[in-house]
């Protein structure tokens, strides 16, 4: 009797906790629908089957052509029958939907549609997770993720929204002080897309300042365990196919969107040298990370976890060999959680949208017969640098907020780090004082 009474009390409490997130979930669903409608000329108009129209209609996706490119149409199992240039999380999604789509009348379109349904759910879940991370007073900041213009344009180019949902789940678990769960989810996120690995850096730096080593090591253990569980079976059974992603990432040249591609095309001395590309990328990322580390351990007030996550992720993107249009999805939640000021975010969104249109017009111009429909390399590179400059501006404001906590809108209510988990309110055990 007591148990039933407890359940009657608990259920309304759970409902009360979930109710505020329902409108945000609906806005996430709206963003998912708008993203699907954006692909209308390709999905319903046949533009996918025309190398020019899919670009001039701005509805390109990787998902549809990969049905053939990854030999899914031949029934080949990723990694085992054909090497796939994606981590195993995405390979698993591809294989799952291959099995469902293969018997259908138009399996390539069915494969796309099924993938979109999953990515839409990942977006909705991601919006709710972001709102929970932001806290009750700031949960509506998640609208930036649900309805950002760049999200609507890029949501279904690839499988990035799945990694986003896992990464946000990991950080929410950390904020709730469930370190093992945080590690498991982060390991799965890394097994889906590589970028969530960068979040271990901020966790480490804040652990150095607070001395909270046990929670950090538990999370690292969870990361290692979940990553190994999903990767080792593929490594043992199909190592050449499994390693394709890592070999491809190492061997690929400077590609579209990256600053290295600009230096390469413009043939800059040293910076444009293909032989130095890997070294330049590692050194530049290392320099960014070193600067972030110095900031983290010397700032008078300890930075918030989301501030450091944003800075490290932005550094990773800007120094990468490729910067695809959909990578903006990685950064949106963390840019907002780090500093929910609409002006620099809106400026950045303009730059991202310009890049989205510019890349397809630039690709159209690569063929002599359609060059008149496209744009020149110089015009395209204004979009490349527009993204870099606007992200650097946001990074600058975040650094200022760290150095001047009174400017940090998140801390104006007197809180420390609501999404920081064990770091929230913890005393500093180590700080390197420079002045």
UniProtKB/TrEMBL annotation:
Highest rank taxon of the organism: Bacteria
UniProt membrane topology term: Multi-pass membrane protein
Location (main, coarse): membrane
Keywords: Cell membrane, Membrane, Transferase, Transmembrane, Transmembrane helix
Membrane-spanning segments: 21-40, 114-135, 142-159, 179-208, 220-242, 279-298, 305-325, 345-365, 377-399
Pfam families: GT87 (PF09594)
Stored InterPro entries: GT87, UCP010361
Localization, UniProt: Cell membrane
Family of this protein: Belongs to the glycosyltransferase 87 family.
Protein name as annotated: Glycosyltransferase family 87 protein
């Amino acid at each position: 009797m007591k148990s039933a009474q407890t359940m009657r009390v608990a259920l309304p409490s759970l409902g009360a906790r979930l109710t505020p997130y329902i409108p945000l979930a609906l806005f996430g669903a709206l963003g998912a629908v708008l993203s699907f409608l954006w692909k209308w000329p390709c999905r319903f108009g046949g533009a996918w089957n025309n190398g020019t129209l899919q670009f001039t209609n701005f509805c390109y996706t990787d998902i549809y052509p990969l049905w053939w490119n990854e030999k899914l149409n031949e029934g080949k199992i990723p990694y085992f029958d054909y090497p796939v240039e994606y981590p195993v999380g995405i390979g698993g999604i591809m294989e799952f939907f291959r099995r469902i789509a293969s018997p259908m009348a138009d399996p390539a379109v069915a494969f796309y549609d099924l993938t979109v349904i999953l990515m839409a759910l990942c977006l909705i879940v991601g919006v709710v997770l972001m709102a929970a991370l932001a806290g009750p007073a700031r949960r509506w900041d998640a609208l930036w993720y649900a309805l950002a213009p760049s999200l609507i344009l890029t949501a279904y180019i690839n499988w990035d929204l799945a990694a986003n949902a896992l990464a946000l789940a990991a950080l929410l678990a950390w904020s709730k002080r469930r370190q093992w769960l945080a590690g498991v989810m982060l390991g799965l996120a890394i097994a889906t897309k590589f970028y969530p690995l960068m979040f271990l850096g901020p966790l480490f730096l804040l652990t150095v300042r607070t001395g909270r080593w046990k929670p950090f090591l538990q999370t690292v253990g969870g990361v290692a365990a979940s990553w190994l569980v999903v990767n080792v079976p593929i490594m043992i059974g199909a190592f050449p196919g499994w390693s394709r992603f890592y070999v491809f990432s190492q061997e690929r040249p400077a590609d579209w969107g990256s600053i290295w591609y600009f230096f390469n095309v413009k043939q800059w001395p040293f910076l444009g040298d293909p032989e130095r590309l890997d070294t330049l990328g590692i050194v530049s990322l290392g320099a960014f990370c070193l600067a972030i580390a110095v900031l983290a351990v010397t700032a008078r007030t300890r930075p918030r976890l989301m501030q450091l996550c944003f800075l490290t992720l932005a550094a990773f993107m800007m120094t990468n060999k490729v910067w695809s249009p959909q990578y903006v999805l990685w950064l949106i939640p963390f840019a907002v959680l780090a500093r929910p000021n609409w002006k620099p975010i809106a400026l950045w969104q303009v730059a991202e949208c310009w890049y989205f249109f510019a890349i397809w017009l630039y690709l159209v111009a690569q063929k002599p017969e359609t060059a008149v429909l496209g744009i020149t390399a110089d015009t395209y590179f204004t979009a490349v640098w527009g993204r870099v400059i606007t992200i650097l501006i946001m990074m600058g404001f975040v650094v200022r907020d760290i150095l001047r906590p009174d400017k940090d809108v998140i801390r104006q209510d007197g809180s420390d780090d609501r999404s920081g988990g064990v770091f929230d309110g913890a005393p500093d055990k180590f700080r390197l004082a420079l002045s």
